Amino acid sequence: MARRVPKFAVVDLFAGPGGLAEGFSSVQDELGRKPFRIALSVEKERAAHSTLLLRTFLRQFGDHYPTEYYKYLKKGTAEPDWEGIYPAQWNAAKEHALLLELGLPETEEFLFARIDGIKEKFRGNTVLIGGPPCQAYSLVGRARNKGIATYVAEEDPKHLLYENYIRILSRLRPAAFVMENVKGMLSSTLNSELVFKRIRDDLQSAGDGYTLLALSPRLAGTDADSLHPTDFIVKGEDYGLPQARHRVIIVGVRKGSLDLRAVQALGPLLQPCAAQLNVQDVLEGMPRLRCGLSQNDSFENWTEAMCEAAKAVNKAVSFLPANERTQFRERVDECLVKPSAGSSKWPRSALRPAGIGPFCPKPLKKWILDPRLDALPNNETRSHMRSDLGRYLFASVYAELMLTSPRAGDFPDALAPDHKNWASGKFIDRFRVQLAGAPSTTVTSHMSKDGHYFIHYDPEQCRSLTVREAARLQTFPDNYLFKGNRTEQYIQVGNAVPPYLAKQIGEAVRRLLVLTTKEKPLPDQKL
């Protein structure tokens, strides 16, 4: 019989739209019991919190979401009055999902009181999760800051956001914690000191002290002092993500509660997949859509713009060898036929259910799809400038035929954008196709700026990815609704921890907690 362990209350900091919480809350033991209950999620951005609050509300219903929710998604009408229809569940969601900024004096007293209450109620059976915002650590962010003459890293509060995490860790003193961040944190410095060393030391000494663990299969049970900083990097494509997402994941377990030899005996805390997933594995089967136009958007104007783009591309590829040129032009001409074939012109948003690629593994397929959905939320295409359609068309056909995304030097001069830095060598991937037969590049919040780096692999659609397509690459379930405007939705998806990976991390933490639970389990607690 499976060993009985107590319920653990989870506190989620810097929660975003709730990717980590979604994964942890779905973990089950061998008998189908869920050991983790999300007691508190904290997020300061209003749109992300709105998403988080709705998902927290839905979680009150277990695996059977209200019928009203599916009607809301299908019709696209005003959101129901959840508090009026389901007051108990909505009030519970408001209690668990807080719109707060960590570190402010006016919020800290209230938050600490909540933390103390959770700690007392669950007698130490708690888990802390979260990832402090990473702008100051990311390589792109650091490069941007370097170009600001007045920027002083030591005065940037973003560098010290992790200290809010440490303060809560010391206050809650959980049985275990998970901290997630970008791998740029490993090389970031502050006052000539590696930020990662400082963070690692602070995590180890917080509260009564913690033993830090890396999730790499070959490093299970290795003491943190013997680990290199890069050992904490988890590569998402190795664990069932259709995305090359590399993040620092640090797991800590209360010092003295864990025998590292027992951890080694567990085997891999994260089990690598036998084969990597590709973009097509999760995007195939979704409704085919056209993009919009930034001006005078209609299907007729889109068709006219596509014809102009096709002519420009076919003329521009004259430099290719004869056979490749012919093949390229034939494929470009095909892209003008299917979107308008028959009576069903391709729309800009999904008005029908979606399938998934035939080679998507069954567990991930079950995780993403929801048979009750009649329409996909957050799946409307963005508008593009007419001048960009030719670049998108060229890039996607090139990627399909050459099996690689074109770089700046591969673009014909006639299709080159009027950017001063185009030929500088610094932005060679400015127009990037996400290849059908490979994991995507890292989904980031930059998608909110433009879609140039996330061009759909299907040249017939000639567009960038929708929020929902990006969410699939991030392994969010199709029934996960992102609130706010589309820019805010892209930011939420790009910043989130992929829920399917979070679920695997949660399963690893559960296995560790089984080893640390020596006392009799407590009665199940209601949050």
Overview of the molecule:
The protein has 527 residues and is α/β, with parallel strands linked by helices. It has 2 domains: 8-57 and 96-277 and 496-516, Rossmann fold, CATH 3.40.50; 279-481, no CATH class. Helices cover 37% and strands 10% of the residues. The chain contains 18 helices and 12 strands. The protein has helices spanning 19-25, 46-59, 67-75, 82-85, 87-96, 105-122, 139-146, 162-172, 195-205, 260-266, 279-283, 299-316, 322-334, 362-368, 386-402, 467-473, 486-495, 499-516, and strands at residues 8-13, 36-43, 97-99, 126-130, 176-182, 189-190, 193-194, 210-213, 233-235, 246-254, 292-293, 383-384. Strands 1, 2, 3, 4, 5, 8, 9 and 10 form an 8-stranded mixed β-sheet that branches. α1 crosses α18 (499-516), α2 crosses α5 and α12 (299-316) packs across α15 (386-402).
> How much is the radius of gyration in Å?
24 Å
Bin the strand percentage.
5-15%
Name given to the CATH homologous superfamily of the largest domain: Vaccinia Virus protein VP39
Q: What is the CATH topology assignment of the largest domain?
A: Rossmann fold
Which architecture of the largest domain does the CATH hierarchy give at level 2?
3-Layer(aba) Sandwich
How many distinct folded domains? 2
Secondary-structure class = alpha/beta
The overall pLDDT average reads 88
Helical percentage: 25-40%
Along the chain, the helix and strand elements come as EHEHHHHEHEHHEEEHEEEHHEHHHEHHHH
DSSP, total strands: 12
Approximate shape: globular
Q: End-to-end span in angstroms?
A: 27 Å
Largest sheet: 8 strands, mixed
* Count of DSSP H/I helices: 18
Low-confidence stretches: 138-143, 147-157, 519-523
